[in-house]
């Protein structure tokens, strides 16, 4: 055995060095703990600020009362009724109450064609009674503020993505105008 080692000493030395390098690498990785970043939390300040913050969240915002649209009499109620009335004035179409009882409801538009308005927002708007491009096209600044207050984490999207301008072009059927301004449908 000693003769085999003496004859192949460069190979044995290389294996020993390789084993030592692997052992050093494994032990050096195990001793280094990943650096953890500690971010402050609202609970670090104590219970009083947390309770104050929860009270602010639970309280109705005073600014929301300034943007509240009084509910109008009708089947849709609230913001949707006001929007429907504005659409009636701008498009000179008959109101929902003046249609014959046997007339079918207008089919909902695919609101997801508006850039920045995805399926979740489309569902949320449908829950608010907004299903047509003409309704969005008739929104005023006050309507935008009222709708914006009800969009939760999507607040600010209607103004930022220019929903009213997009809806006006789509409601008018101006595909070329839409595509020249907002890109391909």
Average pLDDT number: 78
**What is the first-to-last residue Cα distance?**
81 Å
Residues in helices, as a percent range: 55-70%
Strand content: under 5%
Summarize the helix and strand pattern as letters: HHHHHHHHHHH
Number of domains: 2
Largest sheet: none
Low-confidence stretches: 92-103
Q: Kindly provide the radius of gyration, computed on alpha-carbon positions and rounded to a whole number of angstroms.
A: 33 Å
Number of strands: 0
How many helices? 11
Helix/strand class: mainly alpha
Describe the global form.
elongated
Transmembrane segments: 7-27
Keywords: Membrane, Transmembrane, Transmembrane helix
Describe it for me?
The protein is mainly alpha-helical and 185 residues long. It has two domains: 2-26; 69-182, no CATH class. It has helices spanning 2-7, 9-31, 47-58, 62-67, 78-91, 119-127, 133-137, 141-149, 157-160, 163-172, 175-182. The longest helix is centred in the N-terminal third of the chain and has 23 residues, at 9-31. It starts with a helix and ends with a helix. The chain crosses the membrane at residues 7-27. Keywords: Membrane, Transmembrane, Transmembrane helix.
């Amino acid at each position: 055995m000693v003769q085999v080692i003496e004859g192949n000493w460069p190979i044995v030395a290389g294996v020993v060095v390789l084993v030592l390098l692997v052992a050093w690498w494994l032990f050096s990785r195990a001793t280094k703990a990943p650096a953890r970043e500690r971010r402050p939390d609202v609970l670090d300040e104590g219970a009083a600020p947390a309770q104050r913050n929860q009270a602010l969240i639970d309280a109705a915002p005073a600014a929301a009362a300034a943007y509240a649209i009084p509910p109008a009499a009708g089947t849709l109620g609230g913001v949707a009724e006001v929007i429907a009335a504005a659409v009636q004035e701008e498009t000179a179409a008959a109101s929902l109450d003046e249609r014959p009882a046997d007339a079918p409801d207008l089919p909902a538009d695919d609101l997801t064609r508006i850039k920045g308005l995805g399926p979740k927002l489309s569902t949320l708007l449908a829950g608010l009674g907004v299903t047509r491009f003409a309704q969005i096209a008739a929104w005023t600044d006050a309507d935008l503020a009222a709708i914006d207050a009800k969009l939760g984490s999507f607040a600010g999207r209607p103004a930022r993505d220019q929903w009213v301008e997009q809806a006006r072009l789509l409601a008018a059927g101006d595909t070329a105008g839409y595509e020249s301004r907002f890109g391909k449908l």
